[in-house]
Amino acid sequence: MPASPSDSPAVEVVGLVKRYDERAVVDGLDLVARRGEVTAVLGPNGAGKTTTIECCEGLRRPDGGTARVLGLDPLEDAHALRPRVGVMLQDGGLPTGVPAAQMLEHVARMYADPRPLDELGERLGLTSFARTTVRRLSGGQRQRLALAAAVVGRPEVAFLDEPSAGMDPQSRHAVWELVRELRDEGVAVVLTTHLMDEAEDLADHVVVVDHGRVIAQGTVRDLVSSADDRTLRLDATPGLDTGAMAAALATAAGAPAVTEAEAGSYTVVGQVGPATVADLTAWLAAQDVLATRVTVGRRTLEDVFLDLTGRQLR
Ligand SMILES: Nc1ncnc2c1ncn2[C@@H]1O[C@H](COP(=O)(O)OP(=O)(O)OP(=O)(O)O)[C@@H](O)[C@H]1O
């Protein structure tokens, strides 16, 4: 049976390449995003996330590979895609001299069946600054307005570049609720984020990008349980010998990886069980060190992300 249009991916990127000054910042990247799913693209600063999304939005011309959105070419078919795709850019990309409400009304008029503005304004908390010009909005207010502009036209695909960056917790939850609702309405939501809790909470599919390529992907559950390791977190005196700690735990925990991510805050990843905790406390007692906190839990998406992409700054 031929695939119906709704079975085909809403976004399909194959072997995408984008170079700046001979340097490939996107280097053979493949990505699929489906209708009714939230696809979260994660990666360190400079990994190529925004560039990839901008190729899908028709804002950049790829140097290789293809990007298709709703089966169309984002550049050649830009006119046909405009009413069907919502875009929230990282820097807002909004005109700055007009009041917020006026800007949104103007955007809404471009669509056949826009969302009711009062309802959208209410749920994203836009009413308190409706008459403020865009340039005078705070960062979080501008983000909320940009999100409203991206979804007011009832898009089939929404590209949201760091949608909740710089937002207070209340706004972030309002954004998450809206994203879930879009997904439930069948929208393909593609978002980038540095917030691992955002990805854990929202994403049906996570794509981890580094150096312009996909290095891991799957559901959050796939990614965190690909190893059955657990993480032990320890708060104690800063500067403990992590090598010696790893050696002390080696019998109980296999070959654990011990790191001091922040001063006095240690992470042990490995086959952590009751004997590991016993060996750790014995080792600490032998050093005359008091643990102020020991917790054991599953690996989080952040643990997986740091394992995949390393701890050095980009
Ligand atoms: N117009 C441009 N000219 C030259 N280099 C560029 C241009 N746009 C992006 N780059 C470079 O491409 C690389 C990828 O940038 P991109 O914005 O796609 O990364 P990102 O993964 O979205 O990062 P972040 O998490 O910091 O937003 C970076 O090294 C950036 O400096």
Fold and architecture overview:
Residues 11-236 form the ABC transporter domain. GO terms for molecular function: ATP binding. This is ABC transporter ATP-binding protein. Pfam families: ABC_tran. InterPro entries: AAA+_ATPase, ABC_transporter-like_ATP-bd, ABC_transporter-like_CS, ABC_transporter_ATP-binding, P-loop_NTPase. Helix content is 33%, strand content 26%. With 314 residues, it is an alpha/beta fold. The chain starts with 10 loop residues before the first strand and ends in a 5-residue tail after the last helix. Helix 9 (242-253) packs antiparallel against helix 10. It is built from eleven helices and 13 strands. It has helices at 49-56, 78-81, 100-108, 117-123, 139-151, 169-184, 196-202, 220-224, 242-253, 274-286, 301-309; strands at residues 11-20, 23-33, 38-42, 64-69, 85-88, 157-161, 188-192, 205-210, 213-218, 230-235, 257-262, 265-270, 293-298. Strand 8 and strand 9 form a beta hairpin. The longest helix is centred in the middle third of the chain and has 16 residues, at 169-184. Strands 5-6-7-3-8-9 form a six-stranded mixed β-sheet, sandwiched between helices. A four-stranded antiparallel β-sheet has the order 11-12-10-13. Strands 2-1-4 form a three-stranded antiparallel β-sheet, with helices on one face. It binds adenosine-5'-triphosphate.
Can you describe this structure in just a few lines?
It is found in: Cell membrane. Keywords: Antibiotic resistance, ATP-binding, Nucleotide-binding, Transport. This protein has 314 residues and is an alpha/beta fold.
